[in-house]
Structures are given as structure tokens and as C-alpha cells.
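Reopening this one. Same input as before:
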Amino acid sequence: MSRKVQCVKMDEELDGLDFMPFPGEIGQKVYDNVSKEAWKQWLGQQTILINEYRLPSLDPKARSFLTEEMQKYLFDDQDLEMPEEFKSV
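Same output, byte for byte:
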């Protein structure tokens, strides 16, 4: 049986993640409040950011940037700092 969460992004009760996506307080917050579907959407946005900004995965500044953007996307309902090619008109 799937674990259900009240997803903060989708604003409905949906299947939750099977495990914390990363350790720490923010990982627990994501696990408790984000659905599999919203996480999947974030991973797509994250991939765009990594590729377009050519972010090195081991760079602490890049990781910090991605964590900030993830919080905006999932919890603050803010626009991401998307590259020009991906911004809505």
C-alpha cells in the first residue's frame, strides 16, 4: 500500500515518496509534504537548470542554488530562475 501525503505543490492527497530524497531537514520536509508526481516534475525542472547552466554536481554553490530553486518550486510557489529559452512568453 502506498504512503499518502497532502502534497504542497499539487494541493491534493497523492502517493508520497518511498524514501527521503536526501538527508537532513529539507529531505525530511520533502518526504513529508511532496508527492511522487510533484517530485518527478521537480526533477525535470532540475535537469533543465543543470544542463542549461552547466552546473557541476559536486560544486557546493551549484548544490545550494538547486536547493534554493527546489524550495521555491515545491514550497513557495515561486518562479524558478529558468534560462531564457525556457521562460514563458
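So the earlier flakiness isn't reproducible anymore. For the record, The mean pLDDT is 90.
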